[in-house]
Write the structure tokens for this entry.
Amino acid sequence: MPFAQIYMIEGRTAEQKKAVIQKVTQAIHEAVGAPVENIRVWIHDVPKEQWGIAGKTAAELGR
């Protein structure tokens, strides 16, 4: 059972997350032939204050 974890800075809409889940599922299915019903995708929404870029938080950088 393939299991994909996706880390993203918070702020994506439910529609965007749904699209990521669908496309990652399809990509795994095509790449390794796993049945779609066996593929799991977990999206981690990371608060901007907990995401670091070049020594600063994403919040500080206005991301």
About this structure: The chain has one helix and four strands. The chain has one domain: 3-57. The longest strand covers residues 3-9. The beta strands are 3-9, 40-46, 52-53, 56-57.
